[in-house]
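Sat 14:20. Reprocessing the chain from the morning session after the first attempt stalled halfway. Input below, unchanged.
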Amino acid sequence: IEVLGHQGDVGAISLISAAEHRLRLHFPEAAIDEAEAGQAVPETGRVDYRDVPLVTIDGADARDFDDAVWSEALPNGQGFRIMVAIADVAHYVRPGSALDQEAQLRGNSCYFPDRVLPMLPEALSNGWCSLVPHEDRGCLVADMTIDMRGKLTSKRFQRGIMRSAARLTYERVEDALNGQPDAEIEPLLDTSLRPLKAAYEVLAAAREERGALDLDVPERMIELSEDKSCVVDIRPRDRLLSHKIIEELMILANVAAAQVLEAIEHSVMYRVHDHPDPVKLEHLANLLDGTPVNIQRGIRLTAGKLNGILKGVAGEDYAAMINQAVLRAQAQAVYAPRNIGHFGLGLESYAHFTSPIRRYADLTVHRALIHAFSLGQGGEALGASQAPIPLAEAISDCERKAAYAERSAKDRYLAAYHSDQIGQIFEGRISSVTKFGLFIELDRSGAHALAPMGLLPDDRYDFDAKSLTLEGRRWGRVFSVAQRVQLRLVEADGLTGSLVGEIVGEVEPSASSRLMSDSAPVNASNRRISKQKNRGKRGQKRKQP
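Finished this time. Tokens:
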């Protein structure tokens, strides 16, 4: 059908992953024509926000800026007024249009290390729907106030016209808040950034009080060469205060959107997150047996309780294992017209409002707000042109496909990065134990390599599904999740994204062995003798009539 590139071409990796998951690579001409026909929004019927020093804060490599923020302290320490302005995508993407049909099929934008597959054509995503600095743009504004406990005390949504005061990056904002502002940012410190930080601190305290899940799972960034032909570095992505500020403000606007629509009994496309899977929680409970913390079986867990567990193991060598187990126990967040709340965020009502440029669900929320509050053209009640349940299922499915494609591309890039390091020894931690071998997360790159049974230290290993361990029959060596090991890389295939290695050198005792030794004097030889006795007893029982 199409040639994506040569087998060893790193530039083809994203295209391979996109094709593998049947993502849409090209826009139909009708959608492109509609996007290129876009013009500036009319000023009539819009609130003028051009004098408000709204700023965009994004990554240094971002090409589209669809959200802008501003805050000020209320008199007498009563709280804060916060504005979150979002590009008015609904003005350009009308229900039933070619743009709308294509956006619905894509569901969301998909992000790869070397490219983006956008939900909307560039004429909109990088043009009229991008809040570029010092240019007039249409927007939908969440104008909110919070008290000093972080509670929403007022909220209203207005269609407006704005002019971004600056295009800022997370790193520049971080430096400014740490006392090193550059010339462009310095005038914005008192009018925008310091009030934003103060409002965030109130919201962060409210988040902790309601018990939102706080996982410590590091994220790594893949850096490509200038021509994007090879991977030059893999490094941890910094988690800055500026990131957290924007995250909390977006959550607040999303909550406000859900609440105002819910209050007037208008249809809402909720973002819902169910309680964790009981079977996976049982696995987590098994892992915690013998640690200073535990899960009381048979009760309905809250996110706050899980946070207590994570704090209880913080600093221990098995903390990474517990964080990963808590993450794996979580249900998949999805879109739905029926509200069941958001477990991870600890919220009763939540919708996605803040990024209609890259998520179709957000566009439906914008249309609902425009329709509900008579804010002009482009509004639509959820279900007016399509059944809400099938739509929710379709865009949730699109989100899953994009996530799988992004993950498979990342695996391929990591394998390509390690392809010239065959024979080198890496340190890492066991991330998963299976009946066919171990998966090792390499410390620096975060890549996952398989150490199959045949490449484990010489022995025959038994797999224990309950404790997720492999134990050698002859020498009693035990491998378990979170155990630190050394691995020699023997294979790296960028085409499939697979890494294979063998366990070498000294291996630190398994986490499960250490945990058991804290509660009972069990060692490898005792365990081996016990197993031999049990096998003998089982054999005797089988001989009895």
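The two ends are 67 Å apart (CA to CA).
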